[in-house]
Amino acid sequence: MSLLQVDSLSLGLRGTPVLRSVNLTIEASEIAGVVGESGAGKSMLGKAILGVLPRDVTVTGGAIRLGGTDLLALRPRARRALLKRDMALIPQDPLSALNPCRTISAQLAEVLPRGTVDAKLEVIRWLDAVRIPSATKVAKSFPHVLSGGMRQRALIAAAFASRPKLVIADEPTTALDVTVQKDILNLIREMQRETGVGLMFVTHDLCVVAKICHSVTVMHGGRVIEQAACTDLINRPGHAYSQALLAATPRPDQAGQGLEPVPTALIERMIAGAGDG
Amino acid sequence: MARLLVTIGSIFLTLLGVSVVIFVILRLVPGDPISMMLPPGATDEVRANLERLYGLDKSIPAQYVIWLRNVAWLDFGMSTQFRLPVMEIILDRLPATLELVLLASLIALVLAFAFSILAVWLQVDSATLAIDGLAGLAQAIPDFLWALIFILAVTLFAPMMPISGRFDPRTAQDFATNFYLLESLVTFRFDAFAELMRYAVLPALALSLPLAAGITRVLKGALEEAMAQDYVMLAQTKGKSRLAIVLGEALRNAMIPTIALTSVQLTFLIGGTVLIERQFSWPGIGSTAISAVINRDLPLIQGIVLVFALIFILINLASNELYRAADPRLRTER
User: Fold this and answer.
1) For residue A83, which residues of chain B lie inside 8 Å, CB to CB?
2) Which terminus of chain B is more solvent-facing, meaning fewer CB atoms within 10 Å of its CB: N or C?
3) Do B185 and B241 have their domain in common?
4) Cβ contact (<8 Å) for A50 and B326?
């Protein structure tokens, strides 16, 4: 059985479809990339799985199963308990994702699994694990004294410290500068490998996908355009849109080649086609 | 330690500045206490005698120096109107006002926190609308009008409820201080406390309603803003309930603007009890201040202004400390 199974999930924003019949499967120990441009619905998909959708976005159809449990059928309290136990989020913007009025230690300790004996020690162990220097001091400090990269490391520690089965990383490197991005990416991959969690990696960056993902889902306009193993998609993109996205992405193996913007005509054709389905 | 010394120094400097301003202005405005004391047809000789008695024949700087020297020994002079030491009058009257203000702010804070948290927690449009409407109503009606409404309602529907004074003179109890409410509470005389509360609750409520509305607006807005932040979304993914998030994540961040507004409003409240004290015959400092001004009771005005200045300074200091407690970003050691 797959770790996560999203079956023809549809979301609506006051009647306007946000996701249209999206299917997605993530296996345990797999890094599944979800790529698409802004507005493709990739972040909404993550939020729907976590159950933290904005107030006016509702699930209009489909099912989300985590290890066989239908999340949408759970009562709020049971879903919260499952969320705390089995899922975690690595957020997009580390600068705003930590509560400025609470210490790093407090924000990390609350995710530790039930029955943790020495929470303080465990927090410091996790901060060490994400290679935050002088973890003891950082644990006691408030977020504003840390740099963006350090905060993202603390947030990664928080995501893995609850020992979840599924981690959703929502563009975790977008808000960071390029030199930090690489470190954070490596760190996420390393933590994923050590803990064996299933990781859903939401990004607009095909380079990042090529680097760390096993499978890729390409999204556009709230629907899935193509799903493939990562190497297949990079080398033999099936859908015209995937080809266009690739052509618009700088690739180290094809340095010197110009980049092509995604053609407007293609987008228009896809939107027109979406009307039929 | 150094910070404490600087703080104390700045308190004294501020008070000194206030004292100069009030002393000079009071002596430059027309009207003088002697004219208020003299009977019609008094001779110039009597007037000169009285002026000498109160030291008003000396130059303003000389008067100021004498007064300041006495103030250093906590002697604020004699009230020309009551023929009592100013200190005695203030100590007699101020506690009544402070208790009223304290009770009013307590009620306001409880109402404001309860309604703001409720509105943000429920996140139901109709409830939010109702709370906004109530706050608008409470704020649109000034405190003295609320007082009139309460007095009217009580006379009509609950004639046994007192609407005048601080306690029933027939059942007057022995109190060591003039903080009757506080004293009865800390000495566990709860029946006396309940009796005193019957007198205090209406003026306090009238004072508190507009204040509660103001705090509710700020606190609710700040809570709503905090609830839209990323850290709240992350807290949701940690499986926290909405109430736990409002109380545990958003409330602390919403405290900062709330402290700012409340401290400002509190200083207004202490100066603004005058009308309420008049309406409920509350024996506080507000009505004393008014009669001191009308009767040109210079020593009493000076004393009251200095005490008010000190209270304002202390409220400001307290709110600064509260800021630092609420917002770790202000606490970073440099």
Assistant:
1) 236-239
2) C
3) yes
4) no
Number of separate domains in chain A: 1
Give yes or no: residues B66 and B190 share one domain.
Answer: no
- Average pLDDT of span B187-209: 92
> Count of domains in chain B?
2
3-state secondary structure of A9: strand
User: CB distance from A78 to chain B under 8 Å?
Assistant: no
CA separation for the pair B230, B215 (Å, rounded): 25
Any CB–CB contact under 8 A between A50 and chain B?
yes
A171-191 per-position pLDDT tens digit: 998 888 888 899 999 999 999
Type of residue found at A35 = V
Do residues A99 and B255 touch, judged by C-beta distance below 8 A?
no
Q: Are strands A31-35 and A215-220 parallel, antiparallel or unpaired?
A: parallel
Residues in A closer than 8 angstroms to B241, CB to CB, are: 77, 80
**Per-residue pLDDT in tens (0 to 9) along chain A, 277 residues:** 799 999 999 999 998 999 999 999 999 999 999 998 888 899 999 999 999 999 899 999 999 999 989 999 999 999 999 999 999 999 999 999 999 999 999 999 999 998 888 999 999 999 999 999 999 999 999 999 999 999 999 999 999 999 999 999 999 988 888 888 999 999 999 999 999 999 999 998 888 888 899 999 999 989 998 999 988 888 888 888 888 888 887 766 666 667 777 777 777 777 766 654 4
DSSP A154-177: HHHHHHHHT--SEEEEESTTTTS-
Among residues B205, B51, B229, B56, which one has the least CA distance to residue B141?
B205
Per-residue HEC secondary structure of A51-74 comes to CCCCCCEEEEEEEEEECCEEHHHC
Same domain membership, residue B271 and residue B158: yes
Question: How far is CA A2 from its chain centroid?
Answer: 18
User: Residue B125: which CATH number?
Assistant: 1.10.3720.10
Nearest to B237 among A83, A99, A142 (CB): A83
CB contact under 8 Å between B229 and A96, yes or no, is yes
A208 in Cβ contact with A182 (< 8 Å) = no
Measure Cα distances from A232 to A181, A226, B31, B78, B279 in Å: 25, 11, 97, 96, 84
| CB–CB contact A98 B231 (8 Å) | yes
C-beta neighbour count of B323 within 10 angstroms: 17
Cα distance from A85 to chain B (closest Cα, Å)? 8
Structure tokens belonging to residue A96: 């705003």
Q: Is the pTM of this model over 0.90?
A: no
The CB-side HSE value for A258 (13 A sphere, CA atoms) comes to 3
Range of the domain at B268: 91-330
Is residue B82 a part of any domain in this protein? no
Query: Are B68 and B104 contained in the same domain?
Result: no
Token pair 């520690």 is found at A157
- The complex's ipTM works out to 0.89
